[in-house]
Amino acid sequence: MPIYEYECQTCRHRFERLQHFSDEPVKVCPDCGAPVQRVIQPVGVIFRGSGFYVTDNRQLPANEAAKELPGGDGGEAKEKDKTTADKKE
Predict the structure, then answer these.
(1) Is 31 within a domain?
(2) How far apart are CA 24 and CA 38, in angstroms?
(3) Is residue 15 part of a domain?
(4) Which one, of 31, 38, 43, lies nearest residue 5 by Cα?
(5) Are the CB atoms for 74 and 66 separated by under 8 Å?
(6) Which domain holds residue 17?
(7) Burial per residue of 14-46, b for 16 or more beta-carbon CB atoms within 10 angstroms, e otherwise
């Protein structure tokens, strides 16, 4: 169940209530009985994984980009195969 924060429009008293999503919002201040308004709080967000940092979005050189691909080795295996084939002939 989420905790909602409310603020009285008259006396500026702030209080919290643990409520279900389906519960009606609190309408009156427990101190003075004046109308209250729900306070919207920022949400803490933690980004994990690649793509969330400045260094993750940079343009990679072609040889490094090939290494990033699944099974990519930057073409080094193909060059090794060519040199091995040349030696056999």
Answers:
(1) yes
(2) 12
(3) yes
(4) 38
(5) yes
(6) 3-39
(7) eeebeeeeeeeebeebeeeeeebeeeeeeeeee
19 located within any domain = yes
Q: Which residue(s) pair with 8 in the sheet?
A: 36
Inside any domain, residue 29? yes
pTM of the model: 0.48
Output the CA angle 54-59-61, nearest 5 degrees.
135
- Residue type at 16? E
The CA distance from 72 to 63, in Å, is: 10
Q: Report pLDDT digits (tens) over 47-72.
A: 776 666 666 555 666 666 566 666 55
C-alpha distances in angstroms, 7 versus 4, 23, 24, 80? 10, 18, 16, 70
Distance of CA 13 to CAs 17, 58, 86, Å? 13, 48, 83
